[in-house]
Amino acid sequence: MSISLRTKVFLPLLILMALLISYLYLYWMPRSLANMERQCQESTERHLDSVVEGVIPLLLGRELDMVYENFDALLKKNSDWIGLRLTDAAGRQLYPLENIPAPAPAKKVQNLRELTMSITYLDMNLGTLTVIVDLAPHLAELKQDFNNAVSVMLFVIAVIVLSVGIVLERKVVQPVKALGHAAQELAQGKFDELQLKAGDDEVGHLVDSFNSMRAKLASSYDLLRQSEQKNRAITITANDAIIMMDDKGYVLIWNPAAEGIFGFKAGEVLGRYLHDIIMPERYRADFEKGFRCFSETGRGPAVGKTVEMTARRKDNVEFPVELSLSALQINEQWHAVGIVRDITRRKQAESRLLDSLKEKEILLQEIHHRVKNNMQVIASLLDLQLGYVGDRQPQEIFSDIKNRIKSMALVHEKLYRSNDLSKIDFRDYLGTLIDNLYRFYNISTDRVVLHLDVGDIAIGIDTAIPCGLIVNELVTNSLKYAFPGDRTGDVSVSLREIAEEGEGGRRYELTVKDNGVGIPETFVLKDMKTLGLYLVTTLVEHQLQGSIELNRMSGTDFSIRFRELKYKKRI
Hints:
Blueprint: H1 5-60, H2 64-77, E1 81-88, E2 93-95, H3 106-109, E3 112-121, E4 124-134, H4 136-187, H5 202-237, E5 241-245, E6 251-254, H6 256-262, H7 266-269, H8 274-278, H9 281-297, E7 306-312, E8 318-330, E9 333-342, H10 344-387, H11 394-416, E10 423-425, H12 426-440, E11 448-454, E12 458-460, H13 461-482, E13 489-502, E14 505-514, H14 531-543, E15 547-551, E16 556-563
Parallel strand pairs: 11-13
Antiparallel strand pairs: 1-2, 1-4, 3-4, 5-6, 5-9, 7-8, 8-9, 10-12, 13-14, 14-16, 15-16
Helix pairs in contact: 1-4, 4-5, 10-11, 11-12, 11-13, 12-13, 13-14
């Protein structure tokens, strides 16, 4: 129970006043009354002594009338004497002649005192004198004086207490209450109210100290608020998750980036055990063991370092993260602050880069092999060409060889520009190859219209080279022989997939046709006198292990079916 300062000051004064009044009424007043009674009794006894001395001669002379007159005078003179009785030695009552009436009120009897004194002369007992004294007037006067004194004293004390209270209220209570109110304002972060100094005393010094404290608190609060705003802005706008947990592992800070990375809202994780939320169960025991050591010492294998680990999202999907962990001691307890970055894309990019580097390494190793093979193919083509020279001009012969070599080189050119070093975009490849042939033979696409029908097909390098040579030979024959003079027509090249990938690879159908003059019926496909068609037949049947059909209706139509060769890595 709280007690106000005013009560604390006035309560002792009131208690002191109560004790003083109790002392006066319970001790001093009864004692004063007793002293008054004793003094009255002693005064009466002295008076009786003088009366007895005056009565003895009268009794010895038997002058009773004088005794009666003296006693009557005594009763009239002493108003507090309400009764006087004189008896002789035999006990007979001499005065008054009638018995003294019984004391009337009970409340008055208690103030009556009966004093008896023997009358002797020379060892001779003359009688007894008894007087009844009423002390009430004396006691009433004493009580009245006492009450008046107490009233005056209480009035003086009340004035003193009131004066002290007024001074205390103005000089102490009100300034202290104002300081208390200002302290509450400070607790609520309000630092604008300046306390006025009431005087150059202890309270005034307290007000000065309070104002100085207020100014320092206001400055510190402003700095703290600015720092908090900066930290909050950093925490809110950071792209990385910022997570803080206490020494028990419970989450204290969970910024918006953490919500985006892990899928948990702040309200779902604050105050919960972090490892149960984002840590895969198979790693949880090891992390809890390490965290117990951290909570005791502030040290650990991951503290002050950047490590990669696996975390878990709200949908239970695991993903790689990068963690930077720092130790922070607050109130002698170790807290952990972690900055977490989702590195899924980086890992995927690294994986793609590693795959690409690996393929490039493999490709570099294959280059020597392929260059050797291609050189061997070129040498074989030259050998074959020597057998088919006849009466042809050297320029024509070398032009055919050049186009065949360019078709092979174009495969490597497309391959090097591809993201996938094992396959090339065959539509793009055929478009470039046939465009080069049109340019080489100076044939306009307006006169001989090209129809290229190739879907989104990517073919491995081992299949692309022989296919390119085949298309090169067949399109070359169409451009050179199918449209003599200014004859117009169409050349169509198509490639389509005719079966899903099986044990032997995907199956394709390649069609090259024109609506030109056609091939004579006497022409045999495997005629050794025609090098170009011999190459086509050899490449289809032996390298691609496929089949070839020739249709002479409405021009020339070659239909080739083959299976994609498996890509063979050479390490």
